[in-house]
Design a protein that fits this description.
Layout (H helix, E strand, L loop, with lengths): L3 H6 L6 H27 L3 H6 L10 H4 L1 H21 L5 H25 L16 H22 L8 H38 L4 H6 L2 H21 L1 H16 L2 H18 L2 H5 L3 H20 L10 H32 L3 H25 L8 H19 L6 H14 L10 H6 L2 H11 L5 H11 L24 E4 L7 H5 L7 H4 L4 E6 L8 E6 L14 E7 L5 E8 L4 H8 L13 E3 L2 E3 L44
Parallel strand pairs: 1-2
Antiparallel strand pairs: 2-3, 3-4, 4-5, 6-7
Helix pairs in contact: 2-5, 2-10, 5-6, 5-7, 6-7, 7-8, 7-17, 8-10, 8-11, 11-14, 12-14, 12-15, 14-15, 14-16, 15-16, 16-17, 16-18, 18-20, 20-21
Length: 649
């Protein structure tokens, strides 16, 4: 491959021969990338690949035996060949080789650390996680894009803060090129699916079988992506025209966004900040508004050339965008600061703080550009480059142990607990157990050895919890770390709860059995043949306004043949007020089912009531069903009905 001059100059080869050579190399790299992707998928258990849960009975796949190495190879395969395809013909060979080696080592290290910090696939699962997390994949993609464009600028021989028009041209063209290439790749796959459907019309399924195998799919799509990169690279005028049309359309959205933002700020002076704080997600919306404004300002500014200067209304909107963004960013920063002061750091608040810092840099710079006497927003050019370097630095901090969001959050929460700023009963133990990876679990284990009795008992209980309670971040329920049955009400009043039921291990069952969540427990002869049964109905929030009582089911527990309590079914409508009153006063009785099961050649077909025809609370509350039969005749079932509820069949 002897094309030193164009490559060393950092430009795309202009001659057809050089372009053809570059194209063949790009297609070849795409083929290698696809083969590597096929090999990686071949090393993954099908259940992990499709559902994200390891199969419990099969032997471990290679990816499960070496998950950190697999994650590193997956991330390297996704990004490094893509960089090589994009930069082939733009960077010198030595610089490109050094760049690829350095980027590959950095990406692999990030993947290994990402797996080490949180090796579980789900927050509540012990399944082995083999794929890199979305967080590290997304942040790595953003960081590599920024680093790639800065290095490409240097490869042209320019200083980082000089020749902003080249910065604009390379960055926006590269971003638009990647989007077009992804769309082209999807269209290629769509055409292959169309071909498979056409062959299927004449009952030839070999083509569909072929394209559904990874050994075909991965190389084909990777080569399609590489071909798209090359085609758009050798026809830059077409791509540039499409890009300019899109930027022009986007720029005319700037006055609308600025007007809405200013109207929002004006309304905020009238209604105050309290409604904003009450939303509990104001900061994220404000930051999104700033990000949209930022995108549209740059779409209007383009490369800053006088020939591309927009219309007057766009220039005025651009001047107002900076101060408007600054006010929105300050309000977002105040909102995040209040939440941190009240509840401490969480990974989400660390990420939000990082985004706020970047937005503040942009908004301060754009406000200064508005106030300066330079041509329209000219200082914006320096701000954009400086902000890009800041983003790159922040990503490095967040993806490494230096400022790992989970590590910072765990340390902060532990400090708040040690300083007494949060009571031990209101501390978020679930955050440590399920939502902060290795750092949180190690911290929870230390709290389980703490000298304080309350902290030790709550941490120990949470360590034995296998399923998290789904809740909004910050909605901490102290009952979750209290002993089981501590807030359970047993009915009818005075009825003892079976001792073996209370002493059984309920770590995987209803909340009120494994911790202090409130519930009603009904004990009575509801089991088979009148045997004792226990009905458990969690009551937390069940009587709140708007509750659909008919959608709540209580759990029925009976002893099995070995005497161990097992969940055997559920009861509906138990939260209907009159139904609950009947259970609490001992007036609920077992009755025969309304519909028979069916026996077919020795097989029993169980009847299950269709929810669409299931009667609601009012239809289930006639007086004769809520109290014991008054006469012997009342207790006899009609001839067409099956045996009594719970009795042997």
């Amino acid at each position: 491959m002897d094309i030193e001059d164009p490559r060393d100059s950092g430009t795309t080869p202009a001659t057809p021969a050089a372009s053809a050579i570059i194209g063949r190399w790009r297609i070849g790299i795409g083929l290698i990338q696809g083969v590597c992707a096929w090999g990686l998928l071949h090393a993954v258990a099908p259940s992990v690949y499709t559902a994200g849960v390891a199969h419990p009975t099969q032997s471990l796949y290679w990816s499960e035996r070496h998950p950190a190495l697999f994650a590193a190879l997956a991330l390297v395969t996704a990004f490094i060949p893509t960089i090589a395809i994009a930069e082939l013909g733009r960077m010198g060979r030595k610089m490109l080789a050094l760049y690829l080696a350095s980027a590959g080592a950095a990406v692999a290290a990030l993947a290994v650390y990402d797996h080490w910090r949180d090796p579980a696939y789900f927050e509540w699962s012990s399944a082995i996680r083999v794929w890199p997390s979305f967080r590290v994949a997304f942040c790595t993609a953003v960081g590599l894009f920024i680093a790639n464009q800065l290095l490409e600028h240097r490869a042209r021989g320019y200083s980082i803060f000089k020749h902003y028009a080249t910065h604009f041209e390379d960055s926006w063209m590269r971003g638009f090129q990647l989007v077009i290439s992804f769309i082209f790749t999807l269209l290629v796959w769509g055409i292959l699916e169309l071909g498979a459907s056409l062959f299927g019309l004449i009952h030839l399924e070999w083509f569909r079988t072929m394209i559904e195998h990874n050994w075909f799919r991965c190389p084909a799509l990777a080569m399609a992506f590489a071909a798209s990169i090359h085609l758009t690279d050798v026809r830059p005028a077409l791509l540039r025209g499409m890009r300019n049309v899109c930027l022009t359309l986007l720029s005319w959205l700037l006055p609308l966004v600025v007007t809405l933002s200013m109207a929002f700020l004006a309304a905020l002076t009238w209604v105050g900040l309290k409604p904003l704080w009450d939303t509990r997600h104001a900061a994220s919306l404000l930051l999104w508004a700033c990000a949209v404004s930022l995108l549209l300002v740059n779409a209007a500014y383009k490369d800053g050339d006088d020939s591309n200067r927009p219309a007057g209304v766009l220039r005025w909107a651009g001047r107002l965008a900076g101060p408007t963004m600054l006010v929105l960013a300050i309000i977002a920063a105040i909102a995040i600061g209040l939440r941190i002061r009240q509840h401490g750091w969480t990974p989400e608040r660390v990420h939000s703080t990082a985004v706020t810092i970047v937005i503040l840099i942009y908004s301060l710079g754009y406000s200064r550009a508005t106030a300066s006497g330079a041509p329209w927003l000219k200082p914006l050019e320096t701000v954009n480059v400086l902000a890009s370097l800041t983003i790159l630095a922040i990503l490095i901090l967040l993806l490494t142990p230096i400022a790992d969001p989970e590590r910072l959050s765990v340390n902060n929460q532990l400090a708040r607990l040690a300083q007494g700023r949060v009571d031990s009963s209101k501390f978020d133990y679930q955050f440590l157990r399920f939502e902060s990876g290795r750092f949180g679990q190690d911290a929870l284990a230390k709290l389980a050895q703490a000298p304080e009795v309350d902290i030790k008992s709550r941490a120990t209980l949470m360590m034995g919890t296998t399923t998290p309670q789904f809740r909004l971040r910050g909605d901490i329920d102290p009952n979750q770390t209290e002993p089981g049955f501590s807030h359970a009400m047993v009915y009818p009043e005075g009825t003892p709860l079976p001792s073996d039921f209370k002493s059984q291990n309920w770590s995987n069952d209803a909340n009120c059995l494994r911790n202090g969540m409130p519930c009603d427990i009904y004990v009575g002869p509801f089991g088979q043949g009148g045997a004792a049964a226990v009905i458990v109905n969690p009551t937390s929030g069940s009587q709140s306004a708007g509750t659909n009582y008919s959608n709540r089911n209580a759990m029925v527990y009976e002893r099995d043949s070995s005497g161990r309590w097992q969940k055997t079914g559920t009861l509906n409508h138990i939260d209907c007020p009159d139904v609950a009153a009947a259970f609490r006063t001992g007036k609920a009785t077992a009755v025969p089912p309304e519909h028979n099961d069916v026996m077919a050649n020795g097989t029993r077909l169980r009847f299950i009531f269709d929810w669409a025809f299931e009667p609601q609370c009012q239809a289930e509350k006639p007086a004769d069903k809520l109290q014991s039969p008054k006469t012997p005749g009342d207790s006899q079932a009609p001839a067409h009905m099956g045996p009594a509820f719970g009795s042997p069949r």
